[in-house]
Amino acid sequence: MKNDRKRRFRDGLIFAAAVILIYALIMNFRSLGSGIMRVFWLFSPLIIGIFFALILYKPMMTINGFFLFLKKKSKLKKHLPDKVIKTVSITLTVIFALLVLFFVGNSVIPQIIVSFRSIFTSLDTYYPQIIGYLEKLGFDGNKIEELFSKIDLSQVWKTLTDNATHIWQTAVGAVNGIANVLTGFTSALIFSIYLLSNLETLKRQTKKLLAAYFRPETAKKILGVGRLTVVTFLNFFSGQCLEAVILGTIFFIVLNLFGFPYVTVISVIIGFTAIIPYVGSFIGGAVGVLLILMRDPMQAVLYIIVYLAVQQIENNFIYPKVVGTAVNLPAIWAFVAIVIGGVLFGVVGMLFFIPMASVLYTLLKNDVNARLKKKAESVPVLPPVPPADGAE
């Protein structure tokens, strides 16, 4: 009885503390968000370094496994230590990642700029077609023309280009700002390389630290939570990035085959937004519809059909193979995580809140199942009631 009272009192205190904490968080929502952002920017090189390591880990392990296979099949078993193979694997992975960034910056981004310039300069040409198509749908063409007549598209484009040039010149002149960005990127890259190079050492040090300061059962639980967190984040980011690259490449090929305009822009946008599960690729697809709609409304309808067909193939065949169960989270809770993360921290929040929610969901599910199992085992099994005399 005394133990039951203590347990109820403890549970009541925990519940009251949780209610007070949630209330305080809600009342100080803005302060909490700004405080977390300050901490994020303070440790941003380390956080970005962890993000880089999560993305580069699986490619590095693939290259490392390939070299280990070659070593096993060759006569270099004694002359080629595993540490050398790991160093070479990390170096090749980083070089490949930098080459991809260089390719995107040198070829894809200029094409995107050209495409957007073409969109703005061709609006006047496609303006009558858009008006005619909207009139067929039942809209009042005169009111639409009156609305559009107030917008000087050439002046809009001129203002945008002038401001963009001014911003670019200011950015080039701000040597200190550029140096800070380069320093932060370099620090993050170096930290990610350190993490990849010293994974075993970090694991060993973490186990020693937990063994020194916690009881064995507590240390085991903390290690389990840490392992679940690392695996969830690793599978999520590596799987989603690979999935985004595959999806963007497929759309680039398919849209080129059908002769759609703005192929590079649409493919890159779909690829980048596909990093966000469930809703990301639909955002990219909607942008593609708007871009093609200004060029040719009928092509926009065809684009929607092609987009939905590719999405069906991707969702049913490619996504399960590439990502699998990396996001161990029902769609409704993933959407909630995306909304909360987006409100608090924008796109970065959307990305990080999904694996965080997945970890919390898995821990809660395991705890609920364990408690139900314990309760079921504690219920005494009653012996069968013997039938009454004369009963059949």
Features:
single chain; 392 residues; mainly alpha; 14 helices; globular
Give a structural overview.
It is found in: Cell membrane. Among the domains are: 43-156 and 179-201, no CATH class; 216-324, no CATH class. The protein contains 14 helices and no strands. With 392 residues, the chain is an all-alpha fold. The longest helix has 48 residues, at 331-378. 85% of the residues lie in helices and 0% in strands.
Summed up:
With 392 residues, the chain is mainly alpha-helical. It is 85% helix and 0% strand. It is a multi-pass membrane protein.
Whole-Å distance between the termini? 45 Å
**Poorly predicted ranges (pLDDT <50, ≥5 residues)?**
none
What kind of oligomer do you see? single chain
Spell out the helices and strands N to C: HHHHHHHHHHHHHH
Strand content: under 5%
What is the CA-atom radius of gyration, in angstroms? 28 Å
Principal-axis shape: globular
Percentage of helical residues? over 70%
If you average the pLDDT, what whole number results? 78
**Major β-sheet profile:** none
In total, the number of strands is: 0
Structural class: mainly alpha
Number of helices: 14
Secondary structure elements and their pairing?
Blueprint: H1 2-27, H2 29-42, H3 44-73, H4 82-121, H5 123-136, H6 141-149, H7 153-173, H8 175-197, H9 199-213, H10 216-257, H11 263-273, H12 280-295, H13 297-322, H14 331-378
Helix pairs in contact: 3-4, 3-8, 3-10, 9-10, 10-11, 10-13, 10-14, 11-12, 12-13
